[in-house]
Amino acid sequence: MIISDKFKFIFVKIPKNASTSMEEALLKLDPEATVGDNNRPPFGHETMATIKKIAGEDRWNEYFKFGFVRNPERRFISHYVYNCDYHYRNNPNVAWVFDETGNFPAPEDKIVTRDMLMQFHFFDKFWSKPYLKYQQVEWMEDDIWLGVVENMEEDWKYVCERIGETIPLFKTNATNSKIWSLGDEAKKVFEILYEDDIKMYNDRIAYGVGVK
Q1: Domain containing 141: what range?
Q2: Which of 1, 2, 20, 63 is nearest to 173 (CA)?
Q3: 129 near 44, Cβ under 8 Å?
Q4: Is residue 91 part of a domain?
């Protein structure tokens, strides 16, 4: 979350959507902006409903509000791969999700199986913050402008135009998830669990990506 009174914008930081790169770029523009706490849950990923309470009705209605969405399958894989670098062996709150290693499996073929998907889904749903938020649509409770990560160059240019500044954007916190994929059975389960996200994303693409 970023609220800039100087440039009159509000940024909704949806996880694993290049949001860290955008946050760093926007805070270079306005270091005095109000931000979420990246050192405690939800690590700056406040939902629209929470941000609206912090900003207040006047700023929420006046400022340019935006966020970015991403292909749901690629976003899931990116989030999975990111968490493969961590272990949760000593955390009793989520130990039940893992075997004795405390890690998510990282197979050599880079294919996420159905069991791996379900393991991570329950971890993400009940451990990540905000609680019970895992689809991108669950960060959205109001009408804001949404760009698309896969159309980043054009959509970020539009954000800069609305803010009135040229803002360099550099990729940070990236994973090697491009070489990973979902297995056939995992895809079937994914399409059930992430139905709303898939519809939102497909509608966005069909409508013309970032709606100006």
Answers
A1: 2-70+135-174+197-207
A2: 20
A3: no
A4: no
